[in-house]
Amino acid sequence: MNLYHKNHLNGDPDTEFCWRFHGKMMSHTVEISSICFSNSLDENDQLRLFSIGKDRRCFEYNVSNASMSHGLPVEHVFSLEKEAFPTACIWYPSNLDSKEGLILTANNEYKMKLWNPTTKSSRRTCLGPTYGGEITKLKLLNQHGLREGKQYLLYQTSKKVIGLI
Predict the structure, then answer these.
(1) Residue 145: burial class (beta carbons within 10 Å; 0-12, 13-18, 19+)
(2) How confident is the model at residue 148 (pLDDT cuts 50, 70, 90)?
(3) For the segment 15-35, what is each residue's pLDDT rounded down to a tens digit?
(4) Sign (positive/negative) of CA torsion 35, 62, 64, 143?
(5) By mean pLDDT, which of 40-49, 83-92, 121-130 is the weakest?
(6) Which of 59, 100, 131, 146 is the most buried (most CB within 10 A)?
(7) Burial code of 108-135, b = ≥16 C-beta within 10 A, e = fewer?
(8) Which residues neighbour 31 within 8 Å (Cβ) at sequence distance 6 or greater?
């Protein structure tokens, strides 16, 4: 996992944007299935980065302490599955069901699970879409123009099917 930061050169707003290497970590033992970012729910409002992999684990990285010399530190790690492989993840909007920070994951057995990464526990499991193969990407649909209180999730499957939840 490599982390890059996009900012003006030397912090000068008159210069062009450039990408700067910010840290790296070899955390997963096999390929990474998906990553997601979120803001923490406490007062410091730090950026959080999560990755899930075919090794059935979820890693949370400490983005604020990433550096060239120390790399990308791992904040937390927990196991997601016993037999299935996680295929996609997204930060679950905190205003929908609860005030806790949750990650929504999908696996190759067509299940979708809500996880609390702080307590490392599963909050809910349900059957996801079963048509077109397992879910490989998740994206929250923007709220502009939608009815009050309604939110939708777009998904993509391994067999080039897209859908709406």
Answers:
(1) exposed
(2) low
(3) 888 887 777 788 888 999 999
(4) positive
(5) 40-49
(6) 59
(7) bebbbbbbbbeeeeebeeeebbeebbbb
(8) 53, 54
Q: Does domain 2-9+31-164 have CATH number 2.130.10.10?
A: yes
Contact 86, 80 (CB under 8 A): yes
- Give me the pLDDT at residue 97, please: 55
Choice between 100 and 155, residue whose per-residue pLDDT is larger: 155
The pair of three-digit structure tokens given for residue 79, joined into one six-digit string: 């196991």
The letter for the amino acid at 20 is R
Domain borders along the chain are 2-9+31-164
Strand duo 86-92 + 74-79: pairing = unpaired
Q: Rounded to whole angstroms, how far apart are CA atoms 144 and 141?
A: 9
